[in-house]
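User: Can you model how uracil sits in this protein?
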Amino acid sequence: MDEEQADHFDGLAVSDCPRCPALVESRSRIVNGVGPADADVLFVGEAPGATEDAEGEPFVGRSGAVLDEQLRAVGLDRESVRITNCVRCRPPENRDPTTEELGNCRGYLDAEIQRVDPDVIVTLGKVPGEHLLERSIAVTKETGTVEEIRVGEAETPRRVLICLHPAATLYDRSQESAFAETIREAAAIAGVSPSDGDGQSRLGEF
Ligand code: URA
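Assistant: Here's the modeled complex, given as structure tokens:
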């Protein structure tokens, strides 16, 4: 992150950023992560879509509805997790963010990961999975796989759980069970079982 970026960033939220000309043009606003700053589970998507750009919150459109439903099913409600994106501005016509745009936004994501310090980072879809793991992935085959990464200068490895994008289940119903299973795995890593029902991590009890 350059100095100008750091001046408009509080460690979690970006208030302004001029780095990507095409995104400055296409966005209505910057969409920052939402959820507790000390959440046990951090979901990372690709970039805001039209609904997210309009409402200023990640995953509030159709994909968000799928995610919310699965979170509830495993006792993790939306308010108990943190949800963010690799890129915080909506790309024009919902195209994928470019490598340069992903790089420009990376400092914010790394800082958010360090600040939240989650038990698990769940990548929603191919773009965030490949961005964080720095390799190509076959999401449908690898969903549910946990890998460790290093973020920035930090010594401690971080756990990344590869997951399908929730929209994949809208295009292909047969992916629903794999998506549900991966979200269940995220909850298990964070110490939440469906019977808890209160969406709170139980890690603190041990
Ligand atoms: N898809 C994403 O990757 N991110 C969002 O915020 C919404 C849909």
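A couple of observations from the model: The radius of gyration is 16 Å. Confidence is low (pLDDT under 50) at residues 197-206.
User: Helpful, thanks.
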